[in-house]
Amino acid sequence: MQTILGAGGPIADELVYELHRHHTERIRLVSRRPTTINDTDELVAADLTDAEATDRAVAGSDIAYLTVGLPLDAQRWESQFPIIMRNVIDACINHGTKLAFFDNTYMYPGTSAPQNESTAFAPGGRKGRVRANIAEMLLEEMRAGRIEALTARAPEFYGPGQTKSYTNSLVFDRIKAGRRPLVPIDAHTERSLIWTPDAGRALALLGNTPDAYGQTWHLPIDPDRRTYAQLISLAGRISGRSIGYTVLPMFAFALARRVVKPLDEMYELLDRYRGDNLFDSSKFTARFPDFPVTTYQEGVELILTH
C-alpha cells in the first residue's frame, strides 16, 4: 500500500497517476474530502492535524507521501504545518512506514546564489521559517535513525490544468485568457520552474527507489532556464501573436499589500524575483539520467494549446 497524505492537489494527482501506471495499484488517498482518481483507489477522510486520524490513515502503508498544501496564510502555516509534520512522522514510525516528503524552497536565501541540496536554510519571512522548521524536524528524526525518509524539494511550479503558482496566475493564465501578463519585480532574471507532471513522476520514482532514502533531492527541471521576458516571447511565437507585459515593481507590492491580503502574504517571497533563481537538480539527473524532463518549449506549448 502506498498512501498520499494531502491528496487532491496538482502534484498529488500526478503522483497518483504515476504510481498507478508504474508502481502499484494499491493506493490510498487521504485528505479531508478525498475523491477517486483510479477505480482501485482507497479513500480515507482524515484531518492530519489530528494525531489519531493521521495514525489510522498511515496504518498498513509501505510508503507515505506527504504532499499537503495550505493556503498562503502565515498564521495558518505556523499553527498547522508543525502539527501535521509531527503527526505524520509519529505515525510512520509507529507503523514502520517509509516517508517521502514533498517540500518547497521557501527556506532558502532569496539570493542569486545556486541552490543545491546542501544549501543552508536562511528563510526571509514567516512562511520560510515554518518550512525550515518542519524540514529540520524530519531531518532530526532521519539522523537519529527513527524513520526511513527522503525529502523531495521543488522550486516554483508551472503547468497544465489547475496548477497554482504566481507564474501560472500572473503570466500563463493571463496569456491564455487573452490578457496582458504581469511580471513580478524583474522580467530579465532567470527563473527555475518545475513542470508539475514532472514533479509528480519524479516523486513517485524516488519513493520507489530504495537507495533514495536518507537524502534530500532537488526534483528535475529543464536546466535551460528562461527569463519571464523570454517565456512570454516563447508564448508569443507559439500563439502567433505579439504579447507585451507589465512589470510590477517592488513599491507597487509594498503599497498594495496594505489592503490586499494575498499580496501581503506574497511579499516575503519577492526577493527571489529580484535576481536569478538558480535551482540545481543535477544530483537527480546524475542518479536518473533517463528521466525525461519537460522543456520550457514543450511546457508552454502544452499550457497554451490544451
Description of the molecule:
With 306 residues, the chain is an alpha/beta fold. The chain folds into 2 domains: 2-155 and 195-221 and 279-296, NAD(P)-binding Rossmann-like Domain (Rossmann fold, 3-Layer(aba) Sandwich), CATH 3.40.50; 166-189 and 226-274, no CATH class. 42% of the residues lie in helices and 15% in strands. The protein is built from 12 helices and 13 strands. A 7-stranded parallel β-sheet has the order 3-2-1-4-5-6-11, with helices on both faces. Strand 4 (63-66), helix 3 (74-95) and strand 5 (98-103) form a beta-alpha-beta unit. Helix 2 (51-58) packs across helix 3 (74-95) and helix 3 packs parallel to helix 4 (126-143). The longest helix is centred in the N-terminal third of the chain and has 22 residues, at 74-95. The two termini are 33 Å apart. The mean pLDDT is 94.
Gap between N and C termini:
33 Å
Task: Catalogue the unreliable spans.
Answer: none
Write the CATH fold name of the largest domain. Answer: Rossmann fold
Secondary-structure element pattern, one letter each: EHEEHEHEHEEHEEEHEEHEHHHHH
Helix run count: 12
Which structural category do the helix and sheet elements fall into? Answer: alpha/beta
What proportion of the residues form beta strands (DSSP E)?
15-25%
**Rounded mean pLDDT score:** 94
Task: State the domain count.
Answer: 2
User: Percent range for helical residues?
Assistant: 40-55%
> Can you name the CATH architecture of the largest domain?
3-Layer(aba) Sandwich
The CATH class assignment of the largest domain is Alpha Beta
What Rg, in angstroms, do the CA atoms define?
19 Å
What overall form do the CA principal axes indicate? globular
CATH superfamily name of the largest domain? Answer: NAD(P)-binding Rossmann-like Domain
Largest sheet: 7 strands, parallel
Q: Care to count the β-strands?
A: 13
**Largest beta sheet: what is the strand line-up?**
3-2-1-4-5-6-11
